[in-house]
Design a protein that fits this description.
Radius of gyration: 21 Å
Shape: globular
Structural class: alpha+beta
Number of domains: 3
Number of strands: 12
């Protein structure tokens, strides 16, 4: 009986456990050989397929991403993601000693999903939720291409961010009623996670967008500290929503600088640098966007007189 057939006779937790143990041993073997003798393309394909058979799609996704980075010549990001993967494997092995929120996060990272129907049965957080910004793109996994949409909200009373995340088949249309500036009176139910960000809307009713002030960090250092705090809660956090006030775009909109002189690179995926420069006119702005630990992706410019939104379109050959 083949490996795939024997796995199918086990419960999913048992399948995942075997997959975790196999990948852990495979990585140990690779480390002993040294990355100067890298796995072949077939080796990466084989271990990825085994993770799919083990019903651990999150591990398959990470193995696929590592394979892509290895083919690019082992950049620093390869070893960063390798460390995250090892931490995930260790977290699953030690899951009984983790807090409930971290156990939920580990399960989610491995590929267990939470059903929206179950979340709909929970009480949510009521507020006026304003759409601050949106990112669209696509992810290709094997032979499957999905369109994605990340929509960031701000609760006027809760004073917190929330994320609506949508995936559809590449021939389907993404939800179009989440345009920046739209506001709902609604309950929001957050997914179980170490750092709750993703949520679903319950019983939304569109209302007029009120005037409001989005709080932002007055300097970059405070924003980076917020990211460090997010990583302390969830080591696999890949991005955070980040609002920066008194920030100046420079170098044709490829860089941001605060009043202390500290700077951040703007994401190469952002193609509206000159528009950002024109909005600034040499004066500081209040920006909302995403920070992924490497670069900042502006999604909106907010002030008391105007609201200018950007909707970047991203293309990712493999989700990371």
């Amino acid at each position: 009986m083949g490996k795939s057939s024997s796995l199918k006779s086990l419960s999913r937790p048992a399948q995942v456990q075997q997959g975790v143990e196999e990948l852990r041993q495979w990585l140990c073997d690779r480390l002993q050989l040294g990355w100067a003798n890298p796995p072949s393309y077939q080796d990466w394909q084989r271990i990825t397929a085994h993770m799919i058979d083990a019903q651990a799609p999150g591990l398959a996704r990470r193995a696929r991403s590592l394979a892509q980075l290895a083919s690019d010549g082992f950049p620093a990001k390869f070893f960063e993601e390798l460390g995250e993967l090892w931490l995930l494997l260790e977290g699953y092995q030690q899951r009984q000693s983790l807090s409930e929120s971290l156990r939920n996060e580990v399960r989610s990272q491995l590929g267990w999903t939470q059903r929206k129907a179950d979340l709909q049965q929970r009480p949510g957080q009521w507020d006026h939720w304003v759409v601050l910004g949106q990112v669209r793109g696509q992810e290709t996994t094997g032979a499957t291409t999905l369109k994605l949409q990340r929509t960031w909200l701000w609760g006027l009373q809760q004073q917190r961010f929330a994320l609506l995340l949508d995936y559809v088949h590449h021939r389907q249309s993404l939800p179009s009623d989440f345009s920046p500036g739209r506001t709902w009176a609604a309950e929001l139910v957050f997914y179980d996670a170490a750092l709750p960000q993703r949520a679903i809307l319950k019983h939304p009713q569109t209302i007029a967008t009120p005037l409001f002030h989005l709080p932002g960090y007055p300097d970059i250092e405070q924003g980076l500290n917020a990211y460090a705090e997010a990583l302390a809660q969830n080591p696999w956090c890949d991005r955070i929503p980040l609002s920066l006030s008194q920030i100046l775009p420079l170098n044709a909109g490829t860089q941001l600088r605060d009043s202390s002189g500290q700077s951040l690179p703007i994401s190469p995926d952002f193609q509206q640098g000159w528009q950002l420069m024109a909005l600034s006119g040499g004066q500081p702005l209040t920006l909302f966007g995403e920070w992924d630990g490497c670069s900042y992706l502006p999604l909106a410019e907010l002030s008391s007189e105007r609201w200018v939104s950007f909707t970047p379109s991203l293309t990712s050959p493999a989700p990371t």
